[in-house]
Amino acid sequence: MINSELIKKSIQNDKGFTRIYRKKIDILQNDFNDVMIHFGTKIMKERGQETDVFVIDNYNRHVIEYFWRWISANEFPGNKMRGIAILGGYGTGKTLISLAFARAYYHLTNLQGQSQKISCFRAREVHKYYLQLGLDYFRVRPILIDELAKETELINNFGTKSMPMAEILHVRDESGAITFATANYSQKDLIDIYKSVIGDRLNVMFNFVELTGKSWRKI
Question: What domains does the chain contain, in order, with CATH numbers?
Answer without folding.
Answer: 24-211 (3.40.50.300)
